[in-house]
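Database export, one record per block. Field names are fixed; values are copied verbatim from the stored entry.
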Amino acid sequence: MSSLSLSARRENGTAVLSLDGELDLATVPALRDTALAELGEPGTATLVLDLARLTFLDSTGIGCWIELRNHAEGAGKELALRAVPAAARRTVTIAGLAPVFGIDAS
């Protein structure tokens, strides 16, 4: 069974959402709901997903990131990824989405 813990904090107009665990079909709804709520907060200009403790990423997780990015841009906000683990970086690079998320593929 997949497990994902989310914790949020604010840093001067930036909402930082830390992910701890696996991001997959079972856990994407929790990320989506929490991230959309953070993006909807007044004064939030940027949502940062801190991935330092992300242990697994599948295609539904990447799809969620795209959805959140599109939502943020539509609202005049920004989505950024921080501390992307090597395995997640590789998955995003193979999918051809590293430039979309500003991830260095090397």
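Remark 1: The radius of gyration is 13 Å.
Remark 2: Residues 4-94 form a domain with the Transcription Regulator spoIIAA fold (CATH 3.30.750.24).
End of record.
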